[in-house]
Amino acid sequence: GENVEQHPSTLSVQEGDSAVIKCTYSDSASNYFPWYKQELGKRPQLIIDIRSNVGEKKDQRIAVTLNKTAKHFSLHITETQPEDSAVYFCAAISSGGSYIPTFGRGTSLIVHP
Amino acid sequence: DTGVSQNPRHKITKRGQNVTFRCDPISEHNRLYWYRQTLGQGPEFLTYFQNEAQLEKSRLLSDRFSAERPKGSFSTLEIQRTEQGDSAMYLCASSPGGIHYNEQFFGPGTRLTVL
Predict the structure, then answer these.
(1) Residue B51's closest CA among B71, B21, B77?
(2) If we measure between CA atoms, which residue out of B22, B31, B28 comes closest to residue B93?
(3) Which of B42, B45, B48 is the closest to A104 by Cβ?
């Protein structure tokens, strides 16, 4: 089955700095990669996703890059703000299979004002 | 609120008791997923429905766990003879389905504590 590794487990930055979270996956059939943000005590919410036919996607201060050859994808947050503080999860899914996501273990991002 | 809802939000039970959780997906979403999440971990897949059919079950889903989605709308997850190791957040998510994978919308979860 799919295995998703996520690093780092904790990331502490100063407000205004950039943050990068990296994930690797094992199943070459995976072709959809969402990122979820989960604030304390709240439900996970999708913030950005990428399909395997593109290498990069941006949405304001967040971007995701995908390297299919190396089987890794990354989340980039620029100009971080305190409200970006949360746990971020990556996931990998094969839409040619059972549409079941495998999640990483999460990265706790702390943005200090 | 037109999002995914789950009830109850919190459940405290004694070891050995049975518990049942309910998930109401977004209307017309034909895919429904159950996950378990423990502290410091990402959601772990438990089971998945396409309409009323249960299509996949994880190895994590022991015989004490059963899920139903009788009319293809709401779903229930029952845990029989609860154990302390069952303590976790149980998340439900729904998706519109289709030929491509679509975004999953998560519910707020049911936090289970087994004493």
Answers:
(1) B71
(2) B31
(3) B42
Q: Above 60 in pLDDT, residue B1?
A: no
Give yes or no for a contact between B88 and B60, defined as CB atoms under 8 angstroms apart.
Answer: no
- Tens-digit pLDDT profile for residues B58-103: 887 889 999 999 988 999 999 999 999 999 999 999 988 776 667 8
Q: How many CB pairs under 8 A join A and B?
A: 54
Q: What is the dihedral of CA B98, B24, A105, B85, to 10 degrees?
A: -130
Pairing type for strands A10-14 and A107-112 reads parallel
Within 8 A by CB and 6+ apart from B39, the residues are none
B44 contacts in chain A (CB < 8 Å): 103
Locate A71 and state its tokens.
């089987």
